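Researcher: Here's a chain I'd like modeled. Treat it as a single chain, no partners, no ligands.
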Amino acid sequence: MENKITTLFTDIGGVLLSNGWDRNARAGAATKFELNHADMEDRHHLTFDTYEVGKITLDEYLNRVVFFENRDFTRDDFKEFMFSKSRAYPDMINLLKGLKEKYKLKVAVISNEGRELNQYRIDTFKLNEFIDFYVSSSFVHFRKPDADIFKVAIDISQCDVENSIYIDDRKLFVQVADDLGLKGIFHTDYESTKKKLADLGLLV
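Model: Modeled as a single isolated chain. Structure tokens:
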């Protein structure tokens, strides 16, 4: 008899929403605000992990990456640009909402996101309407691919891993989830993920 899926874990960036502050967004910021792109990327890569695990604030991150010298634009101008790069993937959001309602699933997030960006995205796109809880890197102070972030999510959910699914757009993170016994789905697009969920017994 096929196991009944009770819990669905998902990433946010690349699955429910755009990645937000990604390489393309940073390139756009460098152009808009006339910054040295190479220097900005160097500084970003040296400090962003520290921001994502909640050890520094967004303002501290920006101090290191952008506002280490005087600028002719404000911190609020830059943050507004950063936040504007987030957009929703309505098909995926509606898919998970529908599955949650139909199968009474527990739906949770496991994501690498800095606190302020994460909170903005949760609030702006009303993710609390269908997400039960968030295990975000900035909340728990470690990040994927560290298996501990998955273990914390499993412990909080009190789920049976064999009855649980994890969706992510990064193969490595899906592999880590698989290694812990979760049914990993590598997300590339709405239609293929919808089919993979159906194959596991979750049909809209």
